[in-house]
């Protein structure tokens, strides 16, 4: 931050400085509002698991010694709710880190082998058929390997969570961009949900009921990562039939 000196400035210069200064104030205000909103959303999301843990702890205190069934139920609930909170706090940290472009570590990566690695680990984790379609054998690309893997992981992980069939992944090179697409044949998204799923903590109602242990943060993290690389993520979907999430990266 530098103090400005308005001595000996012409009216034109002063007008220019006022404009720049006001733009900076607007951006600062926006950023503060975003931070405040995030803290408020995060507290709201953490409140539920904390309340559940608290009430089961009280139950344990009262009945835990006499009733083994209460003991079992309480221990199970406390452990699953604390796992949820751990996952959520890890994702919040990841979101905070990924908001800064300076954190990227650019190197030359082979996108095809990176994609194969992500597919391998998720097809084992979910025992799911995930097929890669591409005519490219090797493609060297400058990006942060860990971050791009994380973004792709989030999209394929979602495809596994919100569908039950085979998943198609494709890599295409266009004139000036690289596209990584993930298609699933699951529940799909309505138009209005498709517009909101990249918002922090947003989950479609069905997803909340599905017990997937989601936080509504995955897609925001993926989008920050891709934006930091100068790209974008687009979604197309037919409700009840399929969804395609595509990462566009400038080549
Ligand atoms: P999470 O999966 O942890 O809930 P995300 O930010 O990754 O959070 O996704 C937000 C919401 O978008 C999900 O809760 C789900 O409702 C919806 N969604 C994401 N991916 C898909 C998909 N492939 N098919 C249908 N719905 C999806």
UniProtKB/TrEMBL annotation:
Lineage of source species: Bacteria, Bacillati, Bacillota, Bacilli, Bacillales
Native source organism of the sequence: Aquibacillus halophilus
Broad class of where this protein is predominantly found: membrane
Cytoplasm listed as a keyword: no
Subcellular location field: Cell membrane
Enzyme class: transferase
Keywords: ATP-binding, Coiled coil, Kinase, Membrane, Nucleotide-binding, Phosphoprotein, Transferase, Transmembrane, Transmembrane helix, Two-component regulatory system
Protein name: histidine kinase
Residues of the full protein shown: 199 to 449 of 449
Top-level taxon: Bacteria
Catalyzed reaction equations: ATP + protein L-histidine = ADP + protein N-phospho-L-histidine
Domain Histidine kinase: 41-251
EC number: 2.7.13.3
Recorded GO MF terms: ATP binding; phosphorelay sensor kinase activity
One GO term describing the cellular component: plasma membrane
